Amino acid sequence: MDTRVKEAYEYINSNTHKRPRIALILGSGLGFLADSVEDVESISYKDIPNFPYSTAPGHEGKLVFGTLFGRDVVVLNGRFHIYEGWDPTDIRTVIHTLKLFGIEKMLITNASGAVNTSYVPGDIVLVKDVMNFMFRNPLRGPNDESIGPRFPDMLGVFDREWMDRVKYVLPDIKEGVYIGLTGPTYETPAEIRAVRKMGADLVGMSTVPELIVCAYVGIKAIVFSCATNMAAGILEQPLSHQEVIEVANMVKDKFAEIVEKALEVAW
């Protein structure tokens, strides 16, 4: 076992008695969901050996163990981005540690720009596929076959049965393809035109590395993306992180309802 993972696991294990089977990753402006967790035990990322920590605005940076909408969960209140300077292998350490801890399923959220012009700011989209245009992969380097395969199948990372149940209870939810770029600059209008032609509906700076490691270690995932703004060039206005936070806050009740429904039908 990777000693980095072992040390992180041992620290977390010694600081909580809870054993959830499902984890949630909260994107920009979506940390409010952590406030709904009951019977809380929390651990700061900065206290966990070998863990990266969050530096982006709107990411608090802690593991929150407890009960959310009737499910035992661990919430990652704040994520880790390549643009912050973290190596993709740092994200691998986090997801591998969660797998060792007993996590079987992952509900990932993010804030994104809408490439699909039929979307409007505030739409919450069920992600049906992703494209890795970060051109970095957290699995680079020597492989340990006891943890995962050298060549993981990304087709199986999405929990299609879970997604079908979500669509049954939320029949009006939109679906789309998410493309991950490194950031931190927002995309140019030319880049948005290009990724639209490639089939992207949403663009963001996260999620893809986490999904890759989930595929590697065998965690089944589902992704909800909050389209907080129209992507560059669609509207004649500059993009800002403040707008991302404001729109996410405007739809927080709707987002919470969707997450609640998704957790109810996780199994």
Describe what this molecule looks like in 3D.
The chain is an alpha/beta fold. It has one domain (3-139, 154-264): Rossmann fold (3-Layer(aba) Sandwich). The chain is 29% helix and 25% strand. It has 7 helices and 9 strands, in the order H-E-E-E-E-H-E-E-H-E-H-E-H-E-H-H. The chain has helices spanning 3-14, 88-101, 160-169, 189-197, 208-217, 241-250, 252-264, and strands at 22-25, 38-44, 62-68, 71-77, 105-114, 123-132, 174-180, 202-204, 220-230. Strands 5-8-7-6-9 form a 5-stranded mixed β-barrel, surrounded by 4 helices. The longest helix is centred in the middle third of the chain and has 14 residues, at 88-101. The relative contact order is 0.21.
What is this structure, in a nutshell?
With 267 residues, the protein is α/β, with parallel strands linked by helices. 29% of the residues lie in helices and 25% in strands. Strands 5-8-7-6-9 form a five-stranded mixed barrel, surrounded by four helices.
The CATH topology turns out to be: Rossmann fold
Biggest sheet details: 5 strands, mixed, barrel
Number of strands: 9
Helical amount = 25-40%
Give the C-level CATH assignment. Answer: Alpha Beta
Strand content: 15-25%
Shape: globular
Number of helical regions: 7
SS class: alpha/beta
- CATH A-level architecture: 3-Layer(aba) Sandwich
Number of domains: 1
